[in-house]
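Lab notebook page, bench 4
Experiment: in silico fold of construct C2
Operator: M.H.
Input chain length: 92 residues
Purpose: comparison with the prior construct
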Amino acid sequence: GSRVTHKSKEDDLKVFRAGRTLEEARQLVEKSFGNYVGSNVMLAAQEEYQKIQEEIELLTFETSAEAIDRKCREQLPEMAYKEIFEMQEELR
């Protein structure tokens, strides 16, 4: 069967004191939760962005002329490095 509910003046007084209806309270909780989740997503995105920026800096440093020159000097025989260095100087 159907269920009958009675709304008392006391219930009305509670809503009046709280200043919000149940629906308004539900919306407020949903909005607050959305803000909470959104802020966590934003923090995670900022952390990922920072990691990417640091990786870009590292890669930029590793591909600089100085870094490439240093790696060539370390990995090539001295004569080969000198020959390349002299050719580069001639081209400048």
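Observations: The chain has a mean pLDDT of 83. The CA atoms of residues 62 and 76 lie 17 Å apart.
Next step: discuss at group meeting.
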